[in-house]
Fold:
Amino acid sequence: MNHSLKPWNTFGIQRNADRIVRAENIQQLLDAWKTATTSHQPVLILGEGSNVLFLDDFAGTVIVNRIMGIDVNETDQSWHLHVGAGENWHSLVQFTLEKGMAGLENLALIPGCAGSSPIQNIGAYGIELKHVCEYVDCVELATGKASRLSAEQCRFGYRDSIFKHEYQDRFVIVSVGLRLEKHWQPVLTYGDLTRLDPITVTPREVFDAVCHMRMTKLPDPKVNGNAGSFFKNPVVSSDVAQKLIAEWPGAPHYPQAGGHVKLAAGWLIDQCQLKGTVKGGAAVHRQQALVLINENNATSEDVIQLAHYVRQRVGEKFNVWLEPEVRFIGRSGEVNAVEIIA
Structure:
């Protein structure tokens, strides 16, 4: 149990694993999984560890997915990309722009690997992965059988997909297929992007604006460990939203399908004046209330205490109960994050 997980989670939490294996192809990954399961060890498959909180030492094998490669096929209407699960997401966004392919610029600087992007249905500034995803290739761990899921079969929801449910422990994502339309239309609905001119703006200008917003508001994990947005933006009924907006007319809110309304978790936390709140070595980021940071050798217990405190304060003030976006990993695998911080 002396293999440190600290380099393998962007929170920078010190925990250990029995074994860490770096897999550069499907066979290496399957072999590592089989070796672990044959000896009745739990297995965790990681990308860059940008969305996990280790609650404890991991009593098994951590497999780091580093299946690489980007292939591009072009048609009259679009570019079709086949991307290895181990490719860094932001590097992929840069690659597409350098090749003159637009469509991913709103998703710049999201930490993590391409293979993790469908699990969370990553999203930022008005774009989600589901808008550009064509398929996801995965392999059943027990049999080695490959299958391709269409975007529809992935059942993408808000920070959700089939890979968080039926496919969670049985399948591993090995590559992602993306479709980028040649007829590009900028999405300029959030933040500084609303100030750009939709007629003249270029994909590079959108990319630069997104990078600027993220770099000025979000902490660098190399300086202060973090997992990006700690909480999901809550989606509530229109009744709940109307009551809240009546009392707080300035509350950001975004209508969703089915009459629901998405609220801004960062705004709710901010209204409770929680920026800079500290529990042990963990703190609420001073520029972006949605991010919890490892400020001073935080333990996972510090982060849990802070998350609980933030959730309670927001719940008491607004009767809206936040849920972590970050995945909580216990000794033998993922556990229910809401139950841990409730």
Observations:
- Helices lie at 26-38, 89-98, 117-120, 203-217, 238-247, 265-271, 300-318, 337-341.
